[in-house]
Specification:
Strand order of the largest sheet: 3-4-5
Number of domains: 1
Distance between the termini: 34 Å
Shape: globular
Strand content: 15-25%
Radius of gyration: 14 Å
Order of helices and strands: HEEEEEH
Largest sheet: 3 strands, antiparallel
C-alpha cells in the first residue's frame, strides 16, 4: 500500500529547497513600520481546487510564479516534481 503524501510532506521539501537555495523561509516579513514585505526568491506552497502548486516570490514587487507551470496538481504529483527539482538544486 502506498503511503499518503500530506501537506506536511510537501512543506518539508519546500523548507529544504529554501535552505538549499539560500532563500528566506517565509514569503513575507513584517517591516519596522508594521507592513508586510515580500521576501524575494522564497518558495512556498499554494493550494487551490483540491491540489497544490509550488510558487516562488518574484525578485521585485509582490508577484509570484508557478515554478512548474502546471497549475494545482495532486499532492503526490507535486511531491515527485518537487523532489526531483530539489535533487537537481542540491547536486550543484
Amino acid at each position: 500500500m502506498t503511503r499518503r503524501i500530506t501537506k506536511s510532506d510537501l512543506a518539508a521539501l519546500v523548507a529544504r529547497l529554501n535552505t538549499a537555495t539560500g532563500n528566506p523561509a517565509e514569503p513575507y516579513s513584517k517591516g519596522a513600520n508594521g507592513q508586510w514585505i515580500p521576501n524575494a526568491g522564497n518558495y512556498h506552497l499554494s493550494g487551490a481546487y483540491g491540489g497544490h502548486a509550488l510558487h516562488q516570490m518574484a525578485k521585485e514587487g509582490t508577484g509570484t510564479r508557478d515554478v512548474f507551470y502546471s497549475g494545482h496538481v495532486p499532492a503526490r504529483e507535486l511531491y515527485y516534481r518537487l523532489d526531483a527539482y530539489l535533487r537537481g538544486v542540491e547536486s550543484h
